[in-house]
Amino acid sequence: MKIIMNQNNHDSKTTEIVKKFNFMSKDGSENYEVNIIEILGGVYSYYTWPCAKILAQFIFYMRRCIKNMNILEIGAGTSLPGILAKKLGANVILSDSALLNKSLNHIKRICACNNLKPGVDIQVKGLTWGMIGNGLFDMSNDLDLIIGSDCLYDNFVFEDVLSTISFLLDQNPKSTFICSYQLRSSDWTFENLLRKWNLKCRNIDLEEVGKDAGIDMKDLMEGHVIYLLEFYRLS
Questions:
Q1: Which residues of 161-187 are buried (b: 16+ CB within 10 A; e: fewer)?
Q2: pTM higher than 0.90 for the full model?
Q3: Contact (Cβ atoms closer than 8 angstroms) between residue 55 and residue 181
Q4: Phi, psi angles (nearest 5°) of residue 17
Q5: How far apart are CA 106 and CA 96, in angstroms?
Q6: Do the beta carbons of residue 127 and residue 95 sit within 8 Å?
Q7: Burial class (CB in 10 A: 0-12, 13-18, 19+), 3
């Protein structure tokens, strides 16, 4: 782990940490490393949350069918799952809010930290949930898979996220949305929104995901309750 002290324009110091995440098969024959720049004390998108680790482990579990897939990560933040997917041979678009230029620039720095050139090796684009604009149309064709970690972090964003996913799946009928979801309140539900936006949802067995790499997925959850969900269109 590498620690860097940066000076910003307001003459206060921020601490950056470069974390290395390794994904290894049980027999050790396959090993992929992803470097992630985190900013201590920064906004939430500068930190790698447990949901991202869960989703990334699932991407590694799917590594034998990821190659050449067209994958979009929404709300990418530090982009751990999406960058891993790229290293596994997928064609990847990393997206975060078009209103957050600093977050998009941070994603580009993380790409560079993994020897990936934005616009050449991997795409970084603005996509604001709930807004049907040019950014959404630009990335809505020929997607095989949409992924997102901890996008449903509060019930006030549920409809924005699911309406965006509904649009993308309508444009890409063969695709599904895989999302890691941390349970923060037993009172929250998006069941009515699924019906409204013509979506279905199923739970993915995390125990099988962990067995592939010989790890306990609960260790990655860091004491939280996390589910891995697949959203798809009603036929």
A1: bbbbbbbbbeebeebbbbbbbbeeeee
A2: yes
A3: no
A4: -125, 130
A5: 10
A6: yes
A7: exposed
